[in-house]
Amino acid sequence: MEIQHEGLKAWIAEAAGITKPDRIYLCDGSAEEDARLKKEAIATGVFHTLDEQKWPGCLYHRSHPKDVARTEGRTFICTKTKRDAGPMNNWMDPAEAKAMVMPLFDGCMKGRTMYVMPYVMGPIGSPYSRVGVEVTDSLYVVISMRIMTRMGKAALEMLGTDKPFVKGFHSLGDLEPENKYILHFPEEDAIWSIGSGYGGNALLGKKCHSLRIASFQAKNEGWMAEHMLILGMEAPDGEVTYMAAAFPSACGKTNLAMLESPLKEQGYRVWTVGDDIAWLNVGPDGRLWAMNPENGFFGVAPGTSANTNPNALNTVTKNSLFTNVLQGKNGEVWWEGMDVPPPSDGTDWLGNPWTPGNGVNGAHPNSRFTAPVSQCPTLSPKWQDPQGVPISAIIFGGRRARLAPLVYQSYDWNHGVYVGATMASEQTAAAEGKVGVVRRDPMAMLPFCGYHICDYLAHWIDMGQKISHPPKVFHVNWFRKDANGKFLWPGFGENIRVLAWIAERTKNAGKAVETPIGYIPTKDGLMLEGVNVSDGALEQLLAIDPADWKQELAEHKEFLAKFGEDLPKGIMEQYEKLVSRLEK
Ligand code: GTP
Ligand code: SPV
Ligand code: MN
């Protein structure tokens, strides 16, 4: 395997000139290579082995204790002007940013190997797929990227002699929080990341490339890169309705994408296409088509059990990586909410001896599994379709203990854009920051939009004009609580009942009532046979409390006011319409 691409050769030489590795290794992505690199990673303590009988092909990794989640405060969009990064991103001047981190990169790979990983985001052969190349000194990153992307030879072939690619420049650095930087240069298709080996900070194909850089490309080229799962919901007549859903990190995308239906016998089930990122293009038929650029799942472990998400558990039984979960003494893995008895003895995510009931979590709340998409039992036969799947519904959602009803449908595309723009969620452990605090997170893209958020919202409104058959837009909330702080809705598999209503609504069926915020199901509009939700709970789940919404509107206003003149007119129009509907 040889590189035929002069631009790539030059860039590798440049990266090596800065980092000064002892060796440069070009990854071919083969199984033989994977086995060899895993052996080396085990020998050097990057990975620990697990019980080969119970967890065949699986490995365990513990990250640096201060490097356990994305670090939004250390993440920057480096556009020429500050304006273009927008008010929701950290910004640095590109030249200044590079000058600042250069001393950290200088010689950082001395005595080590620089791995060069060409990778494809999207199915091989799809017109919508894109190539990136990441260089890194982390074997954990290499072994993870082989699962998460189509890595190696196929990418180099796609690159040919002159195709464009996203340049990902990564090093572990010293892993000290104050030396951590995740820098994006959307105007140069480049990412520089140093000081983190974890998830979205280091597997640069994921959030850095497929969302931050891709969202910028998508805006300029007329498509969309979104923080969305993609699923197909099959109804008893056999028809599959495809949906894409944007929930903030750790708010249920993987779970919904792999939903195990309790209504299978009645003919309702879910097919998984993707669990985190969607690239959406307008098809020749005027519909919006969605493709999953990833090849693997990087999913939250805690709370994943045979009850909540059996398909995730079945996906990770082999060839998977586990990061920061509990390592049992007999080579098993375990996490809180796995719903099986814990090992009698183990080592926690910090590397300390652990026994059940010793008062500390065995697994970090953002501990994760890395597993090939191909192993998912509910995998859609269309998951690698070069065109993607046609989307009939876009769903926004988040964690709201109050306010947001179980589900509602927006009036039209622009109203849907408003619903997405003003969505909010309680913060989770997926990023640094106080868990539980409600923050606005437009389209779940707050940490991932690679340019000015108002230009992004304007792009959404423009796309509505370009899509002659736009998807209907919905909002869901699985997390509403009663006065005692208990979830009102059972969630997980039972969410199929909401998906069924959504699918009906996309066909202009499904019983609904009009409210100021949109259409909500009538009490008999949802299929609730066989689920334990009392009449009172249902009422609370669908309630639209005028006082709460008045408060919410005031918060919308304050939030939107921050954008000043940059806010697209279409958004303000929707705000005013909502105000007048609520006043009536
Ligand atoms: P990222 O990978 O960070 O983008 O997260 P995600 O959006 O894919 O979230 P995921 O599906 O991994 O769920 C995160 C947490 O929410 C897990 O602990 C789940 O158990 C929990 N969760 C998911 N769906 C539901 C639900 O319907 N109800 C309740 N109560 N909890 C849920
Ligand atoms: C998220 O935080 O939304 C994730 C995990 O999917 S990470 O890859 O770390 O961004
Ligand atoms: Mn995510």
Describe the structure.
With 584 residues, this protein is an alpha+beta fold. Strands 1, 4, 5, 6, 7, 8, 9, 10 and 11 form a 9-stranded mixed sheet that branches. Strands 12, 13, 14, 15, 16, 17, 25, 26 and 29 form a 9-stranded mixed sheet that branches. Strands 2-3-19-24-18 form a 5-stranded mixed sheet, covered by helices on one side. α2 runs antiparallel to α5 (139-148). The longest helix has 17 residues, at 205-221. The protein is globular and about 70 Å long. It starts with 5 loop residues before the first helix and ends with a helix. Residues 70, 199-200, 206-207, 249, 276, 298, 430 line the site of sulfopyruvate.
Quick rundown:
This protein has 584 residues and is an alpha+beta fold. It contains 16 helices and 31 strands.
Helix fraction bin: 25-40%
- Tally the structural domains: 3
CATH topology-level name of the largest domain: Phosphoenolpyruvate Carboxykinase, domain 3
Distinct ligands: guanosine-5'-triphosphate, sulfopyruvate, manganese (II) ion
CATH architecture of the largest domain: Alpha-Beta Complex
Kindly state the number of beta strands: 31
**Unreliable spans:** none
Strand residue percentage: 15-25%
Mean pLDDT, to the nearest integer, reads 97
The CATH top-level class label of the largest domain:
Alpha Beta
CA radius of gyration is 23 Å
- Computed structural class: alpha+beta
Tell me the span between the first and last alpha carbons.
Answer: 68 Å
Figure out the total of helices.
16
Largest sheet: 9 strands, mixed
User: In one word, what is the shape?
Assistant: globular
